[in-house]
Radical SAM core domain-containing protein
Amino acid sequence: MVHDRMDLVSKLYQPSGWPRVLEAASGTPSGGPLVVDLDPTTFCDLACPECISGKLLNQGRFTPERLAGLAAELVDMSVRGVVLIGGGEPLAHRGTRTVLRVLGEAGIAIGVVSNGTLIRESLEELAEYATWVRVSVDAATSETYRLFRPDRRGRSVFDKVIGNMRLLAEAKRGALGYSFLVMTRQEPDGRVLSNHHEVLRGAELARDIGCDYFETKAMFDDRHHIVQVPETVLASVDAQLREAARWADDTFEIVDSSTLTALRSHVGPVQPKEYHRCRVAELRTLVTPSGVYVCAYHRGDPAARLGDAVTDGLADIWRTSDRGIVDPSRDCPFHCARHPSNLALHRIGPDTAAPSEDDYDPFI
C-alpha cells in the first residue's frame, strides 16, 4: 500500500505508537514522545534574508559529548523517530555524525532537514542511517539561489549544494527530498523579487538529481502565519506543478505541503483552534541548545520552554514538565500542520479500534 507522506493523521494509527497515542488522546501525560525534533546547533553557514529562525541563530550549541548523551537518552526513552533540524544547520555540528550512528544502529528512524552545504562531510552516515534527508533549495538557478539563500559573503553555493545532493542520491538508502519554499520580497527601491517562476525547473532538476520527491511550500512570517501571495503567483505555481506532475511515477513524487493547500483555500493567515490543550505535544517535542520546547512552532519562546537539556536529562524533563503550558486557542493562531492530528486525537477514545496495519512511517 502506498502512503501519503503528508497525511499526518493516518500516521497516528500505527501499532508501535498506539499505546502512547491513546495516552495523549485521553488528555493525560504520555510516557514519552514518539518523535523528537533535535537542533544540534544554532549555527548556520548561510544568511537567508527570509530565515524564520534568524533571531535565534548563532546563540549556542551542545558540546559533542552532550549531543552523544542526548542520542543515548533518546534510545532509552524508546523514541521512534528523530528529526535533526534547526535553528541552525544540523550538519554544521561535528557531533551530528555520532548522533546519526547511535540512533541508526538502535533502529530509530532519522529525518534530516538541511541546507545541503555540508552533506559531503557526513555522506557516509547520511547514506547509511537517514530515513530521509530534505534539502531546502528554494531555487533552480544559481542566481535566484544567491538572492534568497546567500552565504555569509553574499555568494551563491548553489552548485555545491546540487553536487552534494547528487552524491547522496547515488549512495542513499533512504529518501532524498528537494524542498522549494515559494518566496517574494519587496526591495527598498520597490522592486518585487520572487523565486516562484522556477518551480517547474526545480522539479525537473530534482528528478535529474535522483531525488525521491519535490515539495513546494508557502512561506511563514516570524510569527508562523502563512504569508499570503498574489493570485498571479499562486496560479503560476499551480500551473507549473500541473506540468511537473507528468514526471511523477513510482520513483519520483510531487508533494504539496499543507501550507500551499491553505493558500489555495483562501483561509487566510489565522487558523483558529477551539481546544485548550495540544495533545500532539504529548507525542512530539523540540530539543535545542537553548531549551526543550513544547513544539518547533514555539522554538525560543520562554513561555513554551519545558526544561534545559544542556544540564538535565530528557527523561527527567519529560517526567516533571507540563506540556499544557501552551493553550492552542490562545497561543497558536498560526497555521499548524498538526492541527488535524489534534482534532483526531480529540476523537480517539478507549473504544477506538486498534490499528491492524503494520508500521510504515513514525514521523507523526
Notes: The CA atoms of residues 214 and 254 lie 5 Å apart. The two ends are 18 Å apart (CA to CA).
